[in-house]
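Bit of a strange request maybe. I'm writing a small parser for structure token strings and I need a real example to test against, not something I typed by hand. Could someone generate the tokens for this chain?
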Amino acid sequence: MRTEAENNKTIEESYTKIPKIAILNELKENSIKQWQSEWENTAKGATTKLFFPKIEDRLKIRINATPKFTTITTGHGNIKSYLYKCKIIDNPQWQCKNGDQTVEHTIFECTIFDQERDKLKAVVMRTENWPVSFNKLSTTYYKNFKEFIDTIIWDND
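Reply from user aminoacidic:
Good idea to test on real output. This should exercise your parser:
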């Protein structure tokens, strides 16, 4: 026996129940989009944006933040270029005497870290040319990059 709803072609179908997971996924997606928009439009965090330009990519990585890793990926903390900018020290030059202790100098140029950097470079150069972007170091080569950063001993440690 057919019901009235089955026989009546003018009754509109109504789907009022949405799975909870669908709502949660949409909320998460919208939150990440909003966060990304705010991230792109702020003038703050310039160094961190080089390492993590996309919020979604950053959220995929489980980061074990150490003081040295945080210093490198933010440009703040125990790094001479930052301490000099804040007028805490008188000279940002690094002990290698080849330049100021900046994030870029520390990662790519400082001769003091040649041996440690060579290990990182060897991993990267299996698949692409050195140097790579900060973003690639912090995402694609996160584990090796973090090992490199954590081996650095700064004279102000």
